[in-house]
Amino acid sequence: MSMSQRRIGKYELQQRLGDGAVGETWKAFDGSQRHYVAIKIIPANAQGGEDFSSRFYREGQILTTLQHPNIVPVRDFRLLQDGNEAYIIMDYVEGTSLADYLKTTAHTGNIPSADEIVRLLAPVASALDYAQQRGVIHGALRPAAILLDRSINFPPGEPKLTDFGFNFSRNPLALPPGDIAYISPEAAQGLAITSRSDLYSLGVILYEMCTGTLPFSGDTSGDILMQHIHGIPTSPTLINPRISPALTGAIMRSLARDPAARFPTASALVTTVAKALGVSVPESISSRSQPLPTILNPSSQSGISGSLNAVSGPSSPAQWPSEMLPTSPIEWPSPGRSASPTPVPAGDASGTRPALPPPPVVSSSTPVLPLTPTAAPGARMEMNMPTVLTSSSTRIDPAGAAIPMTSRSSFPPQAPAQTEPSPLPARPVRRKRPGWLYVGLVVALLILLLGSAFGIYRFILGGSSAQPVVVGHAFFVSSGLLSSQNSNQGITDEFQINLQNLPAPPAGKSYYAWLLSDQESVQVALGLGVLSPQLTLTYNDPQHNNLLANYNHLLITEESTNPAPTSPSPDTGAWVYSSAFSTTKNPQDTVNHFSLYDHLRHLLSSDPKLAKVGLNGGLDIWLYRNTSKILEQAGSARDLQKQCVANTASAACDSVHRALVRILDYLDGSQFVWRDVPTQPQVLIDPTIARVALLEFDTVNQFPPGYLEHIGSHLREITISPAVTAEQRTLAIQIGHAINNVQVWLDAVHQDAAQLVKMSNSQLASASAVSTFNDLFTNANYAFIGKFDPNTSTVQQGVVQIHYSIQGLATFDVTPCTVTSGQNSCA
Question: Which of 47, 276, 599, 644 sits CB 3.0–4.6 Å from 653 for a disulfide?
């Protein structure tokens, strides 16, 4: 008998609604009650484990007790006598799913309005918190599990959650692609899930609703899982420039890899989102004043069962600091209107300066738009970034002595203003009129000097006063597919080429792209492939190796299509376009003798000073990781403070203290954290990571230097490196201004954390500490996300934009090869 004709008891199966990781879901007709139901059929023999029956009945009983307007009710559950099949009977919901809704809205560029985002998420949050209060974890939250009930007058439908529990054997690699996109990092590793795993999945849905894309995607299930475990999601504001820093902070916190750093409840997440969007908080979640219990480390990975033996009481819905809230509602695209991005600057009318490529992205499959109002990485930018001045200060050590703090100068470095005393008036001197011979000598000298200057100018430009014609750009991209945290794989492991206005190659020939290296250890050219008819090419390294670590030279040849070449032609006449990062040592750098290519490698692939202490990867990725961790810990500390009580045995106060210590571990590094936490015998973060501080405390003895100072020094050197392009110089200066912003904000975070970590439990629990915790979180959020200025509608950039702008430095200007006296300029 076919499945379409099959009956289960009194239920006639009529239509298969979908397949999931657990089983099939069917629409069925109840002949006795004369109404439709939905039946999930679970093949018990595929679940594995001898305890399936007992777990099935235990969790089925729990599910039938869930009575919430936004949870699809479970009416019955049965296990067939042969034990091979189980089924769950639920109410049938007439309507589509949130997945279908997103396909026709956000995925097409029609980002839902702010009101609609909150109206869709609030019922989901209410349902999740209700289930959490009863010890129930969803375990498979995704848009397909959120049904939109059309029977209720709430376009596009009232959200109702289904698929609670029964996630018995969610082997991550066996999950459908639609499930893997929403899996939490802990579930991706096969670890026990908690209620905060559901909050991560809800954060992915929020990201998708606001950007129209997913934070992680890839060609295989393994790729996506690795990104959830190790990757860095593209900042949503780079995809949708309308997203405010406040909303970006909420999204990024919900996607924290550390469960404890996420929001304590779904209601807290949606409350923060609503305030960031300037939308009133729905009553269904604003009425929650008491914190909900958070299930941590449940005894099994089942979607429902979770022991309450390790409960961390989270806070009530987070209150966003007033300075983080927009003064007016954020302008969002109205329903049906495309969220058109800010266009990338186009080339000039002559066509000799083509448009620059879009900024590099973490995931090559994720579309990225430039952050408004600044230009995309690599583009020409007006120098309108604020200069943040910093000054020398002192810090008090545990003994009460003043410790001088190194002055942190603004970028670019400026010579100090010199004040000279006014000279006394001199006696007038009678001057003789110069003779004609003297005038002639002066004129001749001026002509000689001008001629020398012109010759030097021609020499610097390679013998020609004309700028080379730029036919396009090529740039390195990071996929985010890191093999481990302590690796530079997944960083600059992709390469993209965009050229314009080139003549079509002759018949039988094609354009081929190659990466070459000036390093003696790299002798073989890397073939990237043939350029498409649109003169574009994207190359993904199969092992996700760091390409910038080995290659600094792009070459495009014109060679036979059949057979395709396996290496660049030795005939330089086939070499038609190229570009390279200069390996010429900077004569002004008398200490390190670094070239432009050296600076790019230290920032994006591998830094020698980090390698000496056991840290792989460039400076940029560690700045990003560690600042994001500070934001996570600042959010946790602020939320847990609400449960801190004035006694010596308060678990919440202990958790607050540990979060503050971790913040100082990242800021001070293990070399200096003892000054702020003298009673802590060892750092609480990874000891290898703690060997490098974010801040700079001693320019003479601190090794390696603090990340901000270290990156700033590379940026300063890039601006005066031989062969640096005007775009690279401008972008380096802009990043330097952003480094100054982060310096100020992290100094404020340090001041707050150092003050709070010394407080007793009673002081931490006092109302007077609330403002300091809010300030701590606000400045940590500014440092990572940036700060929006509503008066100018601009953003003071933080680490997120620094991360993408530094990738933008690794951009080639592709120019034609020229032949002079039989010598090819690209050879």
Answer: 644
Give me the DSSP letters along 359-370.
Answer: PP-SSTTS---P
Q: Whole-angstrom Cα distance, residue 175 to residue 184?
A: 13
Residue 609's Cα: distance from chain center in Å?
Answer: 25
Identify the pLDDT of residue 55.
Answer: 72
Which of 6-20, 66-80, 586-600, 670-684 is least confident? 6-20
Residue with token string 């010890």: 135
Answer for the pair 47, 62: CB distance below 8 angstroms, yes or no.
Answer: no
Question: Rounded CA gap, 363 and 366, in Å?
Answer: 5
For 464-504, give the DSSP string: -SSPPPP-EEEEEE-----SSTT--TTSS-EEEEEE-SPPP
Three-state DSSP class for 188?
Answer: helix
Which pair of tokens denotes residue 358? 């879009």
The residues near 723 (Cβ < 8 Å, ≥ 6 apart) are 581, 582, 584, 596
Alpha-helical regions (H) of 502-616: 596-604, 608-612
pLDDT digits (tens, 9 = 90+) for 311-358: 233 333 333 333 333 333 333 433 333 333 333 233 333 333 223 333
Instruction: Return the amino acid letter for 25.
Output: T
- C-alpha 14/C-alpha 32 separation (Å) is 16
Find the Cα–Cα–Cα–Cα dihedral 388, 390, 396, 401, rounded to 10°.
Answer: 180
Give the pair of three-digit tokens for residue 644: 């801190």
Q: Counting Cβ atoms within 10 Å, is residue 217 exposed (0-12), middle (13-18) or buried (19+)?
A: middle
CB 212 within 8 A of CB 111: yes
477 phi and psi angles, rounded to 5 deg? -130, 145
pLDDT-wise least confident of 485-499, 567-581, 661-675: 485-499
Q: Alpha-carbon distance 188 to 228, whole Å?
A: 7
DSSP per-residue letters across 729-753: HHHHHHHHHHHHHHHHHHHHHHHHH
Per the rule left: phi > 0, alpha: psi between -120 and 50, beta: everything else, 366 is beta
Instruction: Classify strands 85-91 and 158-161 as parallel, antiparallel or unpaired.
Output: unpaired
Distance CA 112, CA 338 (A): 10
pLDDT of residue 657: 94
Query: For residues 718 and 809, is the Cβ–Cβ distance under 8 A?
Result: yes
Q: How far apart are CA 498 and CA 554, in angstroms?
A: 13
494-499 vs 536-540, strand pairing mode: antiparallel
**Residue 193: is its pLDDT beyond 70?**
yes
For residue 319, CA distances in Å to 293, 441, 630 come to 19, 77, 19
User: What are the structure tokens assigned to 705, written together?
Assistant: 């230097």
Write phi, then psi, for 59 (nearest 5 degrees).
-75, -30
Report the alpha-carbon angle 277-279-282, nearest 5: 130
Lowest-confidence range among 38-42, 124-128, 544-548, 600-604? Answer: 38-42
> What percentage of the chain reaches a pLDDT higher than 90?
38
Instruction: Write the pLDDT tens digit of every residue in 769-797.
Output: 999 999 999 999 899 988 876 666 677 88
d(CA 728, CA 714): 12
Tell me the residue type at 580: A
Residue 436, pLDDT > 50, answer no
d(CA 697, CA 567) in angstroms, rounded, equals 50
d(CA 194, CA 134): 13
The Cα–Cα gap between 567 and 514 comes to: 8
How many Cβ atoms are within 10 Å of 219's Cβ, its own excluded? 11
Query: At 3, which amino acid appears?
Result: M
Residue type, 142: R
- Nearest Cα residue to 609 out of 547, 682, 669, 544: 669
Q: Which amino acid is at 306?
A: G
Q: Could you tell me if 128 and 162 are in contact, meaning their C-beta atoms sit under 8 angstroms apart?
A: no
Helix spans in 261-388 (H):
266-277, 283-286
The alpha carbon of residue 227 and the mean position of all alpha carbons in its chain are separated, in whole angstroms, by 11
Q: Say if CB 298 and CB 194 are below 8 A apart.
A: yes
